[in-house]
Design a protein that fits this description.
There is one protein chain. The chain has nine helices and 19 strands. The protein is an alpha+beta fold. The protein has two domains: 116 residues, Immunoglobulin-like, CATH 2.60.40; 249 residues, Aminopeptidase (3-Layer(aba) Sandwich). An eight-stranded mixed beta sheet has the order 12-13-15-14-16-19-17-18, with helices on both faces. A six-stranded antiparallel beta sheet has the order 1-2-5-11-7-8, with no helix packed on it. Strand 9 and strand 10 form a beta hairpin. Helix 3 crosses helix 9 and helix 4 packs across helix 9. The N terminus is likely disordered.
């Protein structure tokens, strides 16, 4: 018979071995091929804070400003009369190539300006959105206004301006202000509870939306939704909002879905990055979607701490997790087929259904192993579930974003109801 002291010693040794193995696994993973070196080292780093100011060229009567939330232009240099170079730098370097920009430009009199967008540690990626009415309405710049120099990694915008500021942005801005307005509307539903899961480095709230309608079911399923870990990835973020809106709609399908499922959503996980016009990181220079092992950052730690109580609830069973992002194509990144998940191969079956419902939309797939510290993999390891990184094309028009969000949500609900009935009935 083993003595209590020896048993305790064996437990301690086992714990140390597991801890060391866990550390070794993380050190061996150095990020994806497109990641900068050391991206999975998620302790705080020093960032370059943007200097907010309006830069004027009095002789030309032209003014360029970044004095608003979600903007980014670090410096402006006059090339010639009416021709300006806007220099844009990331919050930290090296960094993934998601070069966000946002600014206002106006003139004392009507004139034409040429604006060259140049980048430090990045290449031009996003076709500009332009607003002539103070940010109320936006349109993508066409070839008469905008060219992309792929050889030199620059963008050029040529347009007529006057005394009213023209807003130019890498995507239509979606700051914490817009999110708060959207979530105010969502929270009017009696079955939607908005709470603060935690706060960011700069004290902004990281909100949780809990969608939970009364049900006679003794055990309900739970769907986890993450979003906006990377500030510029607004198309994926908006698709996620449309997706959530469909889950809380008055349709008979949504009502039946809510009888069986709760939704725990964190649609705006990087509020500091969104408001500060960051390319990728939070206010501590960290890619939040590489901090899902040690949780060094307050944003990821807040979300983890909000979710973990589900492990101990007998009346809830986590079924699935979705993490919304954007990239150069609409693509699903599922877990490898040979890895055992619940529900079995759900992502692949869901994707097949989306392709059938939206035959004109190209949706690609690229499976990945689970050896990276990202939200999808943490959800899988914590609950044994299937999960997906849901990426939306950078330039997908808003009406198609809405269609994708709505149609994929409808199919998701249909399939999840089937899974619930199969598993729980």
């Amino acid at each position: 018979m083993t003595s209590p002291r020896i048993s305790l010693l064996l437990i301690l040794i086992s714990s140390v071995v597991l801890f060391v193995n866990g550390c070794k696994s993380s050190e061996e993973f150095s990020g994806y091929s497109y990641d900068p070196e050391g991206v999975t080292e998620t302790t705080d780093k020093e960032i370059e804070s943007q200097n907010k100011r309006t830069i004027g060229f009095r002789d030309d009567g032209v003014w360029i400003s970044n004095e608003f939330s979600g903007s980014r232009v670090n410096d402006v240099v006059r090339v010639a009369a009416g021709h300006y170079e806007l220099r844009i730098r990331p919050e930290i370097s090296p960094i993934n190539n998601s070069p966000w920009y946002g600014f206002q430009v106006w003139a004392d009199d009507s004139t034409e300006v040429t604006l060259d967008l140049t980048y430090t540690d990045g290449r031009h990626r996003y076709r500009p959105d332009i607003s002539y009415d103070g940010g109320e309405s936006w349109s993508k710049a066409d070839s008469t206004l905008y060219i992309r120099d792929r050889e030199n990694g620059k963008g050029r915008i040529t347009l007529d301006i006057g005394t009213e500021p023209v807003w130019i942005s890498a995507q239509v801005p979606q700051t914490t202000r817009e999110f708060r307005q959207w979530s105010d509307e969502i929270a009017l539903n009696p079955f939607v509870q908005r709470s603060v899961a935690g706060t960011s480095h700069q004290g902004r709230p990281v909100y949780q939306l809990k969608i939970s309608e009364y049900s006679d079911e003794p055990v309900k399923g739970v769907i986890l939704i993450y979003g906006r870990q990377h500030p510029p990835e607004i198309p994926g973020y908006l698709t996620g909002l449309f997706f959530i809106e469909e889950l809380i709609s008055d349709s008979e399908l949504a009502k039946q879905f809510r009888e069986y499922f709760d939704v725990w959503a964190f649609p705006m996980m990087n509020p500091d990055g969104a408001d500060n016009g960051h390319w990728r990181a939070n206010a501590a220079g960290i890619d939040l979607n590489r901090d899902w092992q040690y949780f060094n950052q307050p944003e990821t730690a807040a979300v983890r701490n909000a979710i973990l109580p589900l492990q101990n609830r007998s009346d809830r069973k986590v079924f699935y997790a979705i993490d919304f992002h954007s990239t150069g194509q609409t693509i699903f990144y599922p877990i490898l087929e040979e890895i055992d998940t619940f529900p079995h191969l759900f992502t692949y079956r869901w994707l097949d259904g989306i392709r059938e419902k939206l035959p004109d939309l190209e949706v690609n797939v690229e499976p990945f192993p689970t050896d990276s510290p990202i939200a999808k993999n943490w959800s899988h390891f914590t609950f044994g579930i299937d999960a997906v990184t849901y990426e939306v094309w950078d330039n997908l028009p808003k009406d198609e974003l809405e269609q994708l969000g709505v149609q994929s949500a409808q199919l998701f609900m249909e399939m999840m109801i089937e899974e619930f009935e199969k598993e729980m009935k």
